[in-house]
Amino acid sequence: MDWAAGDLPERDLYKLLVNTVLPRPIALVTTVDAQGRANAAPFSFFNVFSHAPPLVVLGIEGRDKAPSPLKDTMRNIRETGGFVVNLVDRALVEAMQVCAIDFPGDIDEIEAAGLETAASVSIAGPRLAASPVQLECRETVSLSLGTRHRNLVVGEIQHIHIRDGIVDERLHVDIDKLDLVGRLHGADWYVTLRDRFQAPRQTLDGWRGRERAADAAEGEAS
Ligand SMILES: Cc1cc2nc3c(=O)[nH]c(=O)nc-3n(C[C@H](O)[C@H](O)[C@H](O)COP(=O)(O)O)c2cc1C
């Protein structure tokens, strides 16, 4: 089956894209507003974009409901210019789900999720102490795309925190200790990093050698 993207209603585009571009990493993003009130919300339209400069990207949708067409995360990034990407491990999933609830403004979702915070080094928003990797970011640019207050936020990483015991002195990361989850299909499916395989990168010489060996084997057989 194939479709022209422009012919698909928004709802169907969402279905096809979020159920095929898989798995997606999850950023549990913490921010503060201009009054210093903290906020946390998960985003899986998220990835690291480059290491030099060290950039992350977030895709933040608009909101249909009053009081603001912007989600609190986007509004806070506009107000303070900073945010923290807290990566989500298996142990953090339930708290992350609480942070995704559209709470009224008077409820502190970080407290409701039972999460402890730690002060950031380089930006105003807090970090989540329970997250194995916390990336303090400064907004470099945000592009307002589409008609419904969708924003693509680009942030430059200012400071990296990784829980002790995950990285050794040679900067090798223990993936099992990291235990991150990714977002899968449908509304509620997630994946861990436990099903892995190795596919060594090929060289041109190695590929040519295998081609020659295959040709030679074919010649001998005929
Ligand atoms: C796993 C997960 C991933 C999500 N990813 C996104 C996303 O990429 N973009 C988005 O706009 N909303 C996403 N959401 C929904 C937001 O987290 C939700 O709207 C949240 O209430 C926004 O909070 P805020 O208003 O405090 O920023 C996601 C929710 C979950 C559970």
Describe the model.
- The protein has 222 residues and is of the alpha+beta class.
- It has a single domain, classed as Electron Transport, Fmn-binding Protein, Chain A (Pnp Oxidase, Chain A, Roll).
- A seven-stranded antiparallel β-sheet has the order 3-2-6-9-10-5-4, with helices on both faces. It has a three-stranded antiparallel β-sheet with strand order 1-11-12, with no helix packed on it.
- The two termini are 41 Å apart.
- The structure holds flavin mononucleotide.
- Flavin mononucleotide (FMN) binds next to strand 3, strand 5 and helix 2.
Mean of residue pLDDT?
A: 94
Total domains:
1
Total helices: the number is 6
Q: What is the count of β-strands?
A: 12
Assign a percent range to the helix content: 10-25%
SSE pattern? HEEEEEHEHHEEEEHEEH
* Fourth-level CATH superfamily: Electron Transport, Fmn-binding Protein, Chain A
By secondary-structure content and strand pairing, the structural class works out as alpha+beta
Instruction: Give a quick account of the main beta sheet: strands, pairing sense, barrel closure.
Output: 7 strands, antiparallel
Regions with pLDDT < 50 over 5+ consecutive residues?
none
Q: What is the correct CATH architecture?
A: Roll
Beta-strand level of the residues, as a percent range? 25-35%
> Could you name the CATH class?
Mainly Beta
Taken from the alpha-carbon principal axes, the silhouette is globular
Measured distance between first and last alpha carbons: 41 Å
How would you concisely characterize the structure shown here?
By secondary structure, the chain is an alpha+beta fold. Helices cover 23% and strands 31% of the residues. It has six helices and twelve strands.
